[in-house]
Amino acid sequence: MLGMAKNIRPSDRQEVKATVSYPIKKAVRACVAFSSYSRAALADGQLGLLWGVGPVSLLAGTGSPWMLATPLIEEYPVMFLKACKKELEVIKSQYPILENHIDVRSEASIEWLKWLGFTIEDPEPWGWQGLPFHRFHMGRT
């Protein structure tokens, strides 16, 4: 996890800083600790991705998916995109309803979420800084 905090891609660093008031290292740990399912992907022996999902409402079957990446992800786009659909199916088997927020400045990530089939809502203030974020969701809402 320390490798992610040190090497997180700039857009993810910017989003984490807009979301929480504590250091990136603590935010990475919190994401993993919150999750009922989390994974890491290595490339060339280095941490490239962390992702997971945590419960929002177990009764309703709602989970909050998240992903953090290092710039290494850009060197393996095809492998990344192939794996995404499979991982999304695993996550949806645990949580039929998925929702979270994404910084409006994370344009590539927003396009990726659309490609995965998420609905992206209009931006509203969110996070500790109150910056514009899109709520994204999939499943019954």
Q: How do the helices and strands line up, and which of them pair or pack?
A:
Blueprint: H1 2-7, H2 10-19, H3 24-34, E1 37-43, E2 46-57, E3 62-69, H4 77-94, E4 97-103, H5 107-116, E5 119-120, E6 124-126, E7 131-138
Parallel strand pairs: 3-4
Antiparallel strand pairs: 1-2, 2-3, 4-7, 5-7, 6-7
Commentary on this structure:
Helices cover 39% and strands 33% of the residues. It is α+β, with helices and mostly antiparallel strands. Strands 1, 2, 3, 4, 5, 6 and 7 form a seven-stranded mixed beta sheet that branches. β3 (62-69), α4 (77-94) and β4 (97-103) form a beta-alpha-beta unit. The mean pLDDT is 92.
What descriptive keywords fit this protein?
141 residues, globular, 7-stranded mixed β-sheet, alpha+beta, Aminopeptidase
Within the CATH hierarchy, at the fold level, what is the topology?
Aminopeptidase
* Net shape: globular
**Mean pLDDT value:** 92
Characterize the quaternary organization of these chains.
single chain
Which class best fits the helix and strand makeup?
Answer: alpha+beta
What is the CATH C level class, in words?
Alpha Beta
Cα-based radius of gyration, to the nearest Å: 14 Å
Relative helix content: 25-40%
CATH superfamily: Gcn5-related N-acetyltransferase (GNAT)
Whole-number count of domains:
1
Number of helices: 5
Q: Assign the CATH architecture.
A: 3-Layer(aba) Sandwich
Main beta sheet: strand number and arrangement? 7 strands, mixed
Tally of strands: 7
